[in-house]
Amino acid sequence: MSSQPITGQRILVTGGAGTIGSALVDLLVDADAEVLVLDNFVRGLRANLSGAADRAGGRLTVARATGSSSSRAISTTGTWSAS
Ligand SMILES: NC(=O)c1ccc[n+]([C@@H]2O[C@H](COP(=O)([O-])OP(=O)(O)OC[C@H]3O[C@@H](n4cnc5c(N)ncnc54)[C@H](O)[C@@H]3O)[C@@H](O)[C@H]2O)c1
To answer: Taking the model in full, what pTM does it have?
Structure first.
């Protein structure tokens, strides 16, 4: 199995404000990926993403999911919003 470089890739992390998701976001940001986080913030915290946001230099976008499933959330959220 071949591996692809993470650098420059655009990667979606659902639940990215949670414990495991935010740790993954940290790793991806430090590997120079462009990261999109989709989280409903029922359990996740923006504070979990503050370190990554500081280091990302605009490569981290966070969107609040609405609705009860991620597929529905993406359709209702529409465009990614930085916050
Ligand atoms: N933390 C651990 O040590 C650990 C160990 C083994 C397994 N797990 C499992 O891994 C998973 C993640 O664990 P965690 O500790 O990161 O949990 P967590 O609650 O910290 O993270 C889950 C994230 O998903 C978000 N979320 C939930 N439903 C959503 C929805 N419909 N749309 C968008 N976002 C949504 C929450 O707001 C939260 O930020 C869980 O299933 C957990 O049982 C965790």
So the answer is: 0.84
- Mutate-to-test residue for ligand 1 from 12, 13, 20, highest number of ligand atoms within 8 A of CB: 20
Amino acid identity of 73? A
| Structural domain boundaries, residue 41 | 10-68
Question: In what helix (H) or strand (E) does residue 14 lie, and over which residues does it extend?
Answer: strand 10-14
Count how many domains the chain has.
1
Atom nearest to 68 CA in ligand 1: 31
Residues 39-73 pLDDT 10s: 999 999 999 999 999 999 999 999 999 866 555 54
Residue type, 68: S
**21 Cα: distance to centroid of ligand 1 (angstroms):** 7
